[in-house]
């Protein structure tokens, strides 16, 4: 029997066997110490438009770079949630998702997931450190 889909808002670090239906909202490459990895923002199939920050490590970049495209939808399974302690947060979600060698991506463009409206912080909050 297939595992049911879970909502992004429910993701926490209690397990690694998650299954979510998502849309790639943003994607960028990060270069650090002459190594590249991918970072993305996924949005949930849920109507609330929940999102989370995703990190695809250097070792898995080649595997997922050509598969994960902006505005495409996917089923993503088996990833590692970690506390979102990034200095610059791209999501309000308390966790970031790190792909592992066990992560699976399938069902390309099987879902209808609307885009997410951008909600920028006011400059005053950024300057004050909020």
UniProtKB/TrEMBL annotation:
CDD domains xrefs: RPA1_DBD_A_like
Residues covered by the Replication protein A 70 kDa DNA-binding subunit B/D first OB fold domain: 5-106
Pfam families reported for this sequence: DUF223 (PF02721)
Domain of life (superkingdom): Eukaryota
InterPro entries tied to this protein: NA-bd_OB-fold (IPR012340), RFA1B/D_OB_1st (IPR003871)
Protein name (record): Replication protein A 70 kDa DNA-binding subunit B/D first OB fold domain-containing protein
Originating species: Pisum sativum (Garden pea)
Taxonomic lineage of the native organism: Eukaryota, Viridiplantae, Streptophyta, Embryophyta, Tracheophyta
């Amino acid at each position: 029997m297939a595992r049911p889909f879970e909502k992004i808002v429910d993701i926490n670090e209690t397990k690694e066997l998650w299954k979510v239906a998502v849309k790639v909202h943003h994607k960028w490459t990060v270069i650090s110490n002459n190594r590249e990895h991918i970072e993305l923002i996924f949005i949930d199939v849920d109507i609330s438009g929940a999102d989370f920050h995703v990190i695809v490590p250097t070792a898995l970049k080649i595997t997922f770079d050509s598969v994960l495209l902006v505005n495409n939808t996917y089923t993503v399974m088996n990833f590692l949630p970690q506390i979102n302690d990034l200095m610059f947060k791209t999501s309000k979600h308390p966790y970031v998702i790190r792909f592992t060698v066990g992560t699976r991506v399938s069902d390309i463009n099987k879902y209808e997931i609307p885009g997410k409206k951008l909600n920028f912080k006011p400059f005053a909050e950024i300057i004050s450190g909020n």
